[in-house]
Specification:
- The complex is a heterodimer of chains A (about 475) and B (about 475).
- Chain A is α/β, with parallel strands linked by helices.
- The mean pLDDT of chain A is about 95.
- In chain B, a hairpin with a 5-residue loop joins strand 6 and strand 7.
- The mean pLDDT of chain B is about 95.
- With about 475 residues, chain B is α+β, with helices and mostly antiparallel strands.
- Classes of the chains: A alpha/beta (about 475), B alpha+beta (about 475).
Chain lengths: ~475, ~475
C-alpha cells in the first residue's frame, strides 16, 4: 500500500511508531503534488517545509502533511482567495485554525485553489485557472473548495481545511469522492478566514474518512476570544466518541430533497445509503420539509448582501493589486475593482449592493432574514423527531468544465441541498456513497442538529464501517 | 416677519476607554502615524471585531445620565461607504437598534431637550496631505477609537440653548468619567441641523446640516450665520436646499458640501460579526446604582447640607476633579465655607497661574485641610497661610515643615504680645491720646505697630484684646 492511500490517522500512527519518517511523508506529498498539479491545478501556492520537524506527540495528527484553502490567512505565505485583486497580499497573522493546527504539529504544504473569494460551485472562477476533477480531468471538482477536495482525492495531502458558506466543503467532497464536514456555525473560529458571507461562513476539514474529519475538528473547534461569534460550547472528544453504533437513532429523509431535479443514479445511491444506516441499527423515515423551496433565493440574497460589504475593503488602496492609469480616487476604486474582480464576484457584489439599497432593503434583505428564521425553525422542528437527516449533496455528479459558467442560475439552483444547512447554522457532512454510470463519485449528506457534530460524524463513521466507497482512489492514483 | 430657528444636534463623543472598541490597541491621542493600530483596526482581510465591554458600559452610563431608555436588545449595523480613512469600507455603527433612546436633558431656564438616541460606533482614521510630495497619506491611529453619537430632537431655538446643552453634556460625561470631551483634540464633535420657520408655525422648514464645528464659539457663530442665510434666501423668494454645509472658521461662513440628491446610500445592514447584545435587568440596574453623583445633585447638596451660596456651589462643581478635591478637604474636618473660599480663591487661582486642570494638580486635600486647620486654630495668620499655600501648591509640599523652616508660626503667646503692646503704647503717646480723644483710627495704627514688631505673626484677636485692655486702663 502506498503512503497516500492511508488515512491521516493511519499515517500519523506510522509516524509515531517510526515506521515512516516525517521527511518521507513530506516527500511523498511533494512528489504527488508535483505529479498532479499540472493536471488538476489544485494548489495556488506550494510551500512545504524543507525539513519537517513536528512534535509527534502534539496531537493524533501530528506530522501529517495537509494544506489550507487560499482564503485562510497564513502568516508569511501569500493568501489571495484565488483573486487578482489580492495579488501580492501576504498576511502578517495566522488564522486561529492555522495557529491551532500548527501547535498540533500539522505540516502545511501550501495553499489550495478555489473559486474566487469562494464564490462558485465548480472552482472554475479562480484567477489561478480552473481546478480539474482527479476522477475525470474534463470535469469540475465542485466548489468552492475544489482545490482542497481534488488534492485530498489525488493523494497530494492527507487532509485539507476548506470553508463552507453554502456547500463549499460538502459539494466538492461529493464530486471528488472524499469526506467533508461543515461544523455547527460558531464552533470553529472564523478569525483569519477572509469573509464571503460572515453569518454563513464556517471552516472545516476535507479528508479520506469521517474519523479523520473528527480528528481534525478535535484540533480546531472551540471558543476563540478573537471571534465574537464563536461559541462557548464544549470542544474536543469527537474522535474517541465514534462508536459506529446507530441503534435507536432516527434518521429523517426529507422528501423535498428527493423530488424533481434529482438525478436518478444519485437518488438511488443515497437511498441505498439509507439502507446501510438501517443495517447499523437506525430507523429511517420520510418526512416533508416544504421550506426547502425557499432556501436558494434566501441564501443568495443574504450571502450576496454580506459579500458586497465584506469585499468593499479590496479597493487598491492598502494592499493587493491596484489598477494603473487612474485619474482620481473614484477612478482608482472603479478601475481596480472592475479589473481586479472576476465576473462571478462582481455579479454577487452587484446583487448584494442592490438588495441592500434604500427602497429595496425591506423587500429583499429583510424578507430573506425572516425566511432564514423560518428555515431554522423548520429544521429545529425536524430535529425534535429525528437525530439526523439524510439527503443528497448535489442533484448530479460533477459537471463538465465550462458547463455551469454559461448558466449561473442553474449553478445557483444546484446548491439547493447544501445551502439550507448554512442558513440554519447546522453541522453536516458529505460522504462518498457510490458512483454513477460515468464513474463519477456520488455523495450523501448527513445533517445534524445544532452542536450535533458528534452525531453527524458517528453516522458517517457507521456508514464507512460498512462500505468502502471512501477508500476508492481516482484512476492514475498509482501513477508515480 | 419674525422667524424662529429650529436646531437639532448630533454630537460625537470619544469614549475614554484605554483600548479601542474592537481590538486592544491604545486609544491614546497623538502618536506617530500608524503606530496605534493592528490587523483588526486596520481591517485586514480575515480579521474580526470583538466588542470591548467597557465601551458598552460607558455608553449605558451615558444613556442613564441622559435619562434614556436602555435597550435590553441591541445590535451593531454596518454603514457602507468607500473612503481611504475607512479601511474596511464600512463603519460599524448602530442604526436599527441603538443601545439608548428617548432621553431628556434639563438645560436650565425651564427648558428640556429630548434625546432621540445614543449609539455606539467606531471612529475612522485621518488623511493627511503632504504638500511637499503632493500625496495624501492615511493615518489609522484613530481607526476604532470608540465613539458614542448622541442625537437630539429638533428642540433648540437658539445658539444659547445649544451651548447650554453642550456644557451640560460635557460636564455630565466628564463627571461619569466616560470622556474627557476635549473639543480641540476632537473628542467632542458636533454637527448642527438647522432650519427656520415663521414664528408660530408648526411645520418644519427645510434643514441643512453643518459640519466642521470645532469650538463652542464656532457653533454659536455658525448658527447665527446659517439662520441669517436661510432667512435671507426665503425673504428673497428662494428656497433652502437640503444639504450638508461646511463651516469655514476663517471666512466665518458655511459652504455647501453635498446636496441630498448626492447623498450616499449607506446600505446599512446588521453586522454579522458581532452577536446582538442582550442586556440583563441586573446589568443595567447595577450600572444605575453605581452612577456617580453628577454636578447638579452636588450643587443642591452643597447648598442644602453645607449652606454654601449658589455661586460657590456652581464654581466648585464646574470640574469634577475640583468638586472631589473640595469634598475631601471638608471630609478632613475643614469648615465647608472656609474650604470653599480656599478652593475658589487660591486653588483656582494657582491652577490658572500654572495653566493646569484640576485633575492634573499635585496638591492633595490633606495639605489644604492642614493649612485651613492651622488658620482656624490661630497658629497661622490668614495672609501668611496664603503665602504658604502658594509655596507648597506646585509640589504638594509639607505645610508644617514649611511653616517651621520659615518661622511663620503665629504668635498667640499673650505674655509676649503684652510686652510688645506696652512698648508700642509707650513709644506712641500721641496716638494713645488721639484714641482716648475718640479717634478710633488711632487704634488701627497701634494694631499695625504691634503687628510690625511681631513680623505679622501675631494672632489679630489677641492683639486687639490686649490693646483694648491696656487703653481702657
Amino acid at each position: 500500500m502506498q503512503l497516500y492511500e492511508l488515512t491521516a490517522l493511519e499515517l500519523a500512527q506510522k509516524l509515531r511508531s517510526g515506521e515512516v519518517k516525517q521527511q518521507e511523508a513530506v516527500d511523498a506529498a511533494l512528489s504527488r503534488i508535483h505529479a498532479a498539479q499540472p493536471d488538476n491545478n489544485a494548489f495556488v501556492t506550494v510551500d512545504g517545509p524543507a525539513f519537517p520537524a513536528a512534535d509527534l506527540s502534539a496531537s493524533p495528527l501530528a506530522g501529517v502533511p495537509m494544506a489550507y484553502k487560499d482564503n485562510i490567512c497564513t502568516k508569511g505565505v501569500a493568501t489571495t482567495c484565488a483573486s487578482k485583486i489580492l495579488e501580492g497580499f501576504t498576511p502578517c497573522y495566522d488564522a486561529t485554525v492555522v495557529e491551532r493546527l500548527s501547535a498540533a504539529g500539522a505540516v502545511s504544504m501550501g495553499k489550495l485553489n478555489m473559486d474566487e473569494f469562494a464564490m462558485g460551485s465548480t472552482s472554475e472562477t479562480s484567477h489561478a485557472g480552473p481546478v480539474k476533477n482527479p476522477w475525470d480531468l474534463t470535469r469540475a471538482p465542485g466548489g468552492s473548495s475544489g482545490g482542497a477536495a481534488a488534492a485530498v482525492a489525488a493523494g497530494e495531502v492527507w487532509y485539507a481545511i476548506g470553508s463552507d458558506t453554502g456547500g463549499s466543503i460538502r459539494q466538492p467532497a461529493a464530486y471528488c469522492g472524499v469526506t467533508g464536514m461543515k461544523p455547527t456555525y460558531g464552533t470553529v473560529s472564523r478569525y483569519g478566514l477572509i469573509a464571503y458571507a460572515s453569518s454563513l461562513d464556517q471552516m472545516g476539514p476535507i479528508a479520506r474518512s469521517a474519523a479523520d474529519c473528527a480528528a481534525v475538528l478535535d484540533l480546531i473547534q472551540g471558543r476563540d476570544p478573537r471571534d465574537g461569534t464563536s461559541l462557548d460550547a464544549p470542544a474536543g472528544g469527537l474522535l474517541p466518541s465514534l462508536t459506529g453504533d446507530l441503534k435507536g437513532k432516527k434518521i429523517g429523509l426529507p422528501v423535498d430533497c428527493f423530488g424533481e431535479g434529482l438525478d436518478g443514479e444519485v437518488r438511488a445511491a443515497v437511498l441505498a445509503a439509507a439502507e446501510v444506516l438501517k443495517a447499523r441499527g437506525a430507523e429511517v423515515e420520510e418526512f416533508a420539509l416544504p421550506v426547502m423551496q425557499y432556501v436558494v433565493p434566501t441564501y443568495y440574497i443574504i450571502a450576496a448582501a454580506e459579500a458586497s460589504s465584506n469585499l468593499s475593503r479590496f479597493d487598491g488602496v492598502k494592499y493587493g493589486w491596484r489598477a494603473e492609469g487612474y485619474e482620481d480616487l473614484t477612478d482608482l476604486y472603479c478601475k481596480t475593482r472592475t479589473q481586479g474582480f472576476g465576473a462571478e464576484v462582481k455579479r454577487r457584489i452587484l446583487l448584494g449592493t442592490f438588495v441592500l439599497s434604500s427602497g429595496y432593503y425591506d423587500a429583499y434583505y429583510k424578507k430573506a432574514l425572516q425566511v432564514k428564521a423560518l428555515i431554522k425553525k423548520a429544521f429545529d422542528h425536524a430535529f425534535e423527531r429525528y437525530d439526523l437527516l439524510l439527503t443528497p449533496v448535489a442533484p448530479t455528479t460533477a459537471p463538465k468544465l465550462g458547463e455551469s459558467l454559461s448558466d449561473p442560475l442553474k449553478m445557483y439552483l444546484s446548491d439547493i441541498y447544501t445551502v439550507s444547512v448554512n442558513l440554519a447554522g447546522l453541522p453536516a457532512l458529505s460522504m462518498p456513497c457510490g458512483f454513477d454510470g460515468k464513474g463519477m463519485p456520488i455523495g450523501a449528506q448527513l445533517i445534524g442538529p445544532p452542536l450535533g457534530d458528534g452525531m453527524v460524524l458517528n453516522g458517517a463513521h457507521a456508514f464507512q464501517l460498512e462500505t468502502d466507497w471512501h477508500k476508492k482512489s481516482p484512476k492514475g492514483g498509482d501513477a508515480q | 416677519m419674525t422667524w424662529e430657528t429650529v436646531i437639532g444636534l448630533e454630537t460625537h463623543v470619544e469614549l475614554a476607554t484605554k483600548t479601542k472598541i474592537f481590538c486592544s490597541c491604545t486609544t491614546q491621542f497623538g502618536g506617530a502615524p500608524n503606530t496605534h493600530c493592528c490587523p483588526v483596526c486596520t481591517g485586514m482581510p480575515g480579521t474580526l471585531p470583538v466588542l470591548n465591554e467597557k465601551v458598552l458600559e460607558f455608553a449605558v452610563k451615558a444613556g442613564l445620565a441622559l435619562n434614556c431608555e436602555i435597550s435590553r436588545f441591541s445590535r451593531f449595523d454596518r454603514k457602507n461607504y468607500f473612503y481611504p480613512d475607512l479601511p474596511k469600507a464600512y463603519q460599524i455603527s448602530q442604526l436599527y437598534l441603538p443601545i439608548c433612546h428617548d432621553g431628556a436633558v434639563d438645560i436650565g431656564g425651564g427648558k428640556t431637550v429630548r434625546i432621540h438616541e445614543l449609539h455606539m460606533e467606531e471612529d475612522a482614521g485621518k488623511l493627511v496631505h503632504d504638500p511637499w510630495l503632493d500625496q495624501t497619506r492615511a493615518d489609522y491611529n484613530r481607526c476604532g477609537v470608540p465613539l458614542i453619537e448622541i442625537v437630539t430632537e429638533p428642540d433648540f431655538r437658539s445658539a444659547d440653548e445649544v451651548i447650554a446643552y453642550l456644557e451640560k453634556l460635557r460636564s455630565t460625561l466628564q463627571y461619569l468619567g466616560v470622556s474627557d470631551c476635549k473639543m480641540q483634540e476632537g473628542s467632542l464633535r458636533c454637527d448642527v441641523n438647522l432650519s427656520v420657520r415663521p414664528a408660530g408655525s408648526e411645520e418644519f422648514g427645510t434643514r441643512t446640516e453643518m459640519k466642521n464645528l470645532n469650538s463652542f464659539k464656532a457653533i454659536s457663530r455658525a448658527i447665527a450665520y446659517e439662520a441669517r442665510r436661510q432667512i435671507e434666501r426665503i425673504e428673497e423668494g428662494k428656497r433652502v436646499v437640503q444639504e450638508t454645509r461646511r463651516w469655514d472658521e476663517n471666512k466665518d461662513a458655511t459652504y455647501a458640501m453635498r446636496s441630498k440628491e448626492n447623498a450616499q446610500d449607506y446600505r446599512y445592514f446588521p453586522e454579522p460579526d458581532i452577536p446582538p447584545l442582550e442586556l440583563s435587568e441586573e446589568y443595567i440596574e447595577g450600572l444605575r446604582a453605581a452612577q456617580p453623583e453628577l454636578a447638579e445633585a452636588k450643587r443642591e447638596r452643597y447648598q442644602a447640607d453645607w449652606g454654601l451660596p449658589a455661586y460657590d456651589a456652581e464654581k466648585l462643581t464646574s470640574q469634577k476633579a475640583l468638586a472631589d478635591f473640595f469634598e475631601q478637604v471638608v471630609a478632613l474636618g475643614a469648615d465647608p465655607k472656609q474650604a470653599s473660599n480656599w478652593v475658589m480663591g487660591q486653588v483656582m487661582g494657582q491652577l490658572s497661574a500654572h495653566g493646569l486642570e484640576a485633575k492634573d494638580m499635585k496638591l492633595t486635600p490633606p495639605t489644604l485641610a492642614r493649612l485651613i486647620a492651622l488658620v482656624q486654630e490661630g497658629k497661622l495668620n490668614r495672609n501668611t497661610a496664603v503665602k504658604v499655600f502658594e509655596a507648597v501648591f506646585a509640589e504638594d509640599g509639607d505645610v508644617d515643615a514649611y511653616v517651621k523652616e520659615h518661622g511663620l508660626a503665629q504668635v498667640s503667646d499673650a505674655g509676649l504680645v503684652a510686652s510688645v503692646v506696652e512698648q508700642v503704647l509707650a513709644e506712641n503717646q500721641k496716638s494713645v491720646a488721639d484714641f482716648k480723644a475718640g479717634k478710633e483710627k488711632a487704634f488701627g495704627f497701634l494694631v499695625g505697630q504691634v503687628m510690625r514688631q511681631l513680623k505679622g505673626q501675631a494672632a489679630p484677636a489677641v492683639v486687639n484684646q490686649l490693646l483694648r485692655e491696656k487703653l481702657s486702663q
